[in-house]
Write a structure and sequence with these properties.
The complex is a heterodimer of chains A (77) and B (192). With 77 residues, chain A is mostly helical. In chain A, 74% of the residues lie in helices and 0% in strands. Chain A has one domain (6-76). Chain A contains four helices and no strands. In chain A, helix 2 crosses helix 3. Chain B contains nine helices and no strands. Chain B has helices spanning 8-16, 20-42, 45-64, 74-96, 108-125, 131-137, 140-151, 156-163, 167-187. In chain B, helix 2 (20-42) packs across helix 4 (74-96), helix 3 crosses helix 4 and helix 7 (140-151) crosses helix 9 (167-187). Mean pLDDT of chain B is 82; it is low at 110-116 and 124-129. The chains are: A mainly alpha (77), B mainly alpha (192). At the A-B interface, helix 1, helix 3 and helix 4 of A face helix 2, helix 3, helix 6, helix 7 and helix 9 of B.
Chain lengths: 77, 192
Amino acid sequence: MAKMYTEDLIRFIYNETTTDESNDISVALLSNSNLMAEFESLNETITQLDSLSMIPSPTSIKIIMEEAHRQSAEFAH
Amino acid sequence: MNLQKSSDQELIRLYLKGNEASLEILIKRHQKSVYTSIYLMVRDRSLAEDIFQETFIKIINTLRTDRYNEEGKFGPWAARIGRNLAIDYIRKMKRDVTITDSQGNDIFSYLRIAEESVEDKIIRNQTEHSLKELVKLLPEEQRQVLIMRHWGDMSFKEIADNTGVSINTALGRMRYALNNIRKMMETQNVKV
């Protein structure tokens, strides 16, 4: 890879780079402090998104399971 | 047998053989990614609950009629179904609401703009802002890519194919989304 762009770092963080690309980026990060700073900033933002996880109410799960049970009973007949 | 350690494929197989507990484990294993994707699209908890239920009922129907062929990719497939149902709902809402003003303009856009302005004001007056609110404030194209990549577990290639843009455009939108969130977090004292 000749030049690293933010998009390359995003693909790297999400494990979408090839082995060669990953190696090139890893080497570049070690030798380019600006690139490393950008990587760390992106990585921090993406990591914080992980905290934004919501779950449905138990009622929704119950409704789905009731429907699954109803279909099982129907299927059995 | 410890069902919690079973693969998605195994849980599906057991469910189709009559083990309903395995279905519940499968749902709870993927509930976060599917529900979060839906919620961030429709931005309403009650509606997200309805669409979440519809998503998994549709999944159950697909499994029961032997049309499931996404081996090893249950999570992204389920999130995609949820996302598509959310998009269908949003499109239906836009289509059905056709109230026009005296000049014949659709007032739905005015209503949406008014809602966002009020929301913006509320958020601006808050001293702490949730990350959830910031994601909701992103432009729709950026929010969609963010949701599909981060919670829908779709690759950028899949996102590009799904949204009809180039992979570079999808990546660009992701870059803008992350930069915008970072800036908003810095300026609005977001606590995670």
